[in-house]
Amino acid sequence: MASKSVAVITMSTRGTRAGPNVASFVRNIIEKPLAADGISVTDVDVVKFNLPVYNEKVAPIMVPEQASFQYEHSKAWSAEIIKYDGYVLVIPEYNYSMAGGTKNAIDYLLHEWKGKPVAIISYGGSGGANASEQAKGVLSNMGLKVVETRPQLPFAKPDLFSTIGTGKLGDHTVKAWEAEHLPSIQKVAEELKTLLLQPSA
């Protein structure tokens, strides 16, 4: 059986953001159980692709069968995403919704994502339940296989403004996540593994 690969994607785009630290926390939990079955894990950060609000002349559904991307940022994002067999999207919630940058990055592509398993892990002041539910609806309808478990990671109240201001996870937050959310993140790894390793139809 060929080895499989998973991208842990930091989907936040703010100048100051907790996303990379949340993604690192998640990766440290899921990497070992996935590696036990030969599944590699790679960090991907959407910020590095400098995606403007979608500006291609062609719709993603047309690429690559009927048209091609014009801009280098689109080509680079497409080439990165298509490399992986599955994804863990680490998404923020802003103002009770999925962030615009998250939706924009998803909307750039279709066939690169379609048919592949994806896990959604949200975070924010209250954990990101709204963003998680919205992302589930979008990705499911795009044809991705969304894993059932969707951890929602709230910042601890004593750390809230510090985390928002610096992007660093406070000790209270890390301890609370380790105590309360470790099992659900481990479950994500198992569910993702099951989808990745099931025989192709």
UniProtKB/TrEMBL annotation:
Q: Which residues form a coiled coil?
A: none
A Gene Ontology cellular component where this protein is annotated is: cytosol
Instruction: Provide the NADPH-dependent FMN reductase-like domain boundaries.
Output: 6-149
Q: Which InterPro entries match?
A: Flavoprotein-like_sf (IPR029039), FMN_Rdtase-like_dom (IPR005025), NAD(P)H-dep_reductase (IPR050712)
Species name: Daldinia eschscholtzii
Q: Which GO terms describe its molecular function?
A: FMN binding; oxidoreductase activity
What is the organism lineage in this UniProt record?
A: Eukaryota, Fungi, Dikarya, Ascomycota, Pezizomycotina
Name of the protein in its database record: NADPH-dependent FMN reductase-like domain-containing protein
